[in-house]
Specification:
Order of helices and strands: HHHHHHHHHH
Strand content: under 5%
Structural class: mainly alpha
Number of helices: 10
Radius of gyration: 19 Å
Length: about 230
C-alpha cells in the first residue's frame, strides 16, 4: 500500500467534496479492490489521514507536558509557541496548507481535523489544568470540562486568523484585526481558567506579524474563504 501522503495529495487537488473514489484511485494508481481492502469509504480514508496528521503533534506535546518541570502556564504558552514558531519557519508550505484546508470543498477535512485534535489533546489540557489548580494559578469550578471548551475556542480563533490571513488584501488593517482576535482569545482563556490577567500568551504577536510581512512579499492571489465578511475600520 502506498504512503498515505499520496492519498492526501489526491484529496487536496480538487477538494474532498469534489473528489470521487475513482479519482483517488486514478491519482494514486492502485486497483479499486486494493483501495476497498484498506478503506470502506472515502470518509474512512479521511479519518485515517486526519488521525495520522494529528497523532505526531499530540505525541510530541504529551511527552513535553509530562516530562517538563515547568509550571502549568509556562507549559501552556510553550506548546502553542512551538507550534506557531514551526509554522513561521515553513511559511511557503503553511500557506499552501491554509488554502487547501480552508477551501469550501475541503470543509469536511478541516472539521474532522479539529474534532480529532480536540479529542486527542484533551488529556494534555486536562493535565495542565489540574497542575495549574494544584499550583494555585488556575481557579475554575469546572476542571473536568474547561479543557474541551478551551480547545474548541482555540480552533475557532485559528479559523478567524486563517480567514484574515487568506483575505488580508480585502481587509482594512488586517494585522490589527488579527491582534484583536488573538488578545480576545487570551482574555477569554484567562477568564475560563481563573488565571491572572496577562499570563496566557499562546501566540507570539511578533511571530504573527511575520506572517503578514510574508504576505506583503508573497501575496496570495486566490481568495479562498468567502463566508467571512469584514467591515472597514
Amino acid at each position: 500500500m502506498k504512503n498515505t501522503s499520496y492519498f492526501s495529495k489526491a484529496l487536496f487537488e480538487k477538494g474532498y467534496n469534489n473528489t470521487s473514489i475513482q479519482a483517488i484511485i486514478d491519482v494514486v494508481d492502485i486497483a479499486k479492490g486494493t483501495f476497498y481492502h484498506h478503506f470502506k469509504s472515502k470518509h474512512e480514508l479521511l479519518e485515517e489521514l486526519t488521525d495520522m496528521l494529528v497523532a505526531k503533534e499530540v505525541e510530541d506535546t504529551k511527552a513535553y507536558v509530562l516530562s517538563s518541570k515547568e509550571d502549568a502556564i509556562t507549559k501552556m504558552n510553550t506548546i502553542h509557541h512551538k507550534h506557531i514558531q514551526w509554522k513561521s519557519e515553513n511559511m511557503d508550505m503553511m500557506m499552501v496548507v491554509f488554502q487547501a484546508m480552508y477551501a469550501d470543498a475541503n470543509s469536511p477535512f478541516r472539521v474532522m481535523m479539529q474534532e480529532k485534535s480536540v479529542h486527542q489533546n484533551l488529556f494534555i489540557y486536562n493535565t495542565l489544568i489540574q497542575q495549574g489548580i494544584e499550583e494555585g494559578v488556575f481557579n475554575t469550578p469546572f476542571p473536568d470540562d474547561i479543557g474541551k471548551m478551551i480547545l474548541k475556542l482555540s480552533h475557532d480563533s485559528a479559523d478567524e486568523l486563517a480567514r484574515i490571513l487568506l483575505n488580508h488584501a480585502t481587509i482594512d488593517n488586517p494585522y490589527e484585526k488579527a491582534c484583536q482576535a488573538v488578545k480576545l482569545m487570551f482574555h477569554t482563556i484567562e477568564r475560563l481558567l481563573g488565571a491572572e490577567p496577562n499570563k496566557i500568551e499562546i501566540i507570539d504577536l511578533n511571530i504573527l506579524k511575520q506572517f503578514f510581512d510574508y504576505l506583503e512579499k508573497t501575496p496570495i492571489r486566490v481568495q479562498i474563504i468567502k463566508e467571512a465578511h469584514y467591515d472597514s475600520c
